[in-house]
Design goal:
Blueprint: E1 12-15, H1 21-24, H2 32-35, E2 36-51, H3 60-69, E3 75-78, H4 84-96, E4 101-104, H5 108-117, E5 123-127, H6 128-136, E6 141-145, E7 171-179, H7 184-197, H8 201-210, E8 213-214, H9 219-240
Parallel strand pairs: 3-4, 3-5
Antiparallel strand pairs: 1-7, 2-5, 2-6, 2-7, 2-8
Helix pairs in contact: 4-9
Length: about 240
């Protein structure tokens, strides 16, 4: 996509900041900073920290206390190495001062949920899209969301910052990008149309099912978010030696 014709007909819908990719991959065929132009946010969402219903922990504070008292004995699952839930979990470990063993899967549907429901994992971090309905239906027990503020569609879930991890804030997003040489007037047109679309009630209803809050932005706001996201994850990726090959 980065090398596609810059005519407005090639667009990328990406989760999180493309600027994180060079931190994870040793070789890339493109430079996300030079080859992609930000257009607009599409929506934002937190990750959710959950435990199986068989877990003794009712609150995140209880889980953290147990992990501190029993370092290295607990396991947590994510949908894959380098995924936002993986990075969010590594930051959670760092900020909470605990040592728990990461078990990566190849996506949420490749054994992660079945192993989790069977009690083979002590906790899991994943997106609202993957876990919100499971929390609502009491299939799993939600302990906290990773964002700074409570998620409006599930306000009874506290934040991790409220639950013993001060300053912890991981908010994810989807956003639209185009090849870098796309004319400014095309970027402005797509940006304006995106802002209008996200106000539509039918679109808001669709996003609600996905656990995503519709949110537009200017290209400049998105560019700043990308830079901040890469700055957040760079030390975590280095400390945990995370590589995706």
């Amino acid at each position: 996509m980065a090398h596609a014709p810059a005519d407005g007909y090639a667009m990328l819908l990406a989760p999180g900041s493309p600027l994180v990719q060079p931190l994870l991959f040793s070789t890339l065929t493109f430079d996300p900073a030079a080859d992609l132009a930000p257009v607009s946010l599409v929506g934002t969402y937190p990750n959710i920290i959950v435990v199986p219903n068989s877990s003794p922990f009712q609150k995140l504070e209880e889980l953290i206390a147990h992990a501190k008292a029993n370092p290295g004995t607990m396991s947590w699952g994510s949908p894959g190495i380098g995924s936002v839930p993986h990075l969010a979990g590594e930051l959670f470990k760092h900020r909470a001062g605990i040592e728990i063993t990461h078990v990566p899967y190849r996506g949420a549907n490749q054994g992660l949920m079945s192993d989790f429901l069977a009690g083979r994992l002590d906790l899991m971090l994943n997106t609202t899209g993957s876990l919100l309905e499971a929390v609502r239906s009491k299939q799993v027990r939600g302990l906290a969301v990773t964002s700074a503020n409570r998620f409006p569609d599930q306000p009874e879930l506290p934040t991790a910052a409220e639950s013993g991890v001060p300053g912890y804030d991981v908010s994810s997003w989807y956003a639209i990008y185009v090849p870098a040489k796309t004319p400014a007037e095309i970027i402005a047109k797509v940006n304006a149309d995106m802002a209008a679309i996200l106000k539509d009630a039918a679109i808001k209803d669709k996003f609600k099912l996905l656990g995503v809050l519709p949110r537009a932005s200017t290209p400049q706001e998105l560019a700043a978010m990308n830079v901040a996201d890469a700055a957040l994850w760079a030390p975590i990726i280095k400390e945990a030696n995370i590589k995706v090959e």
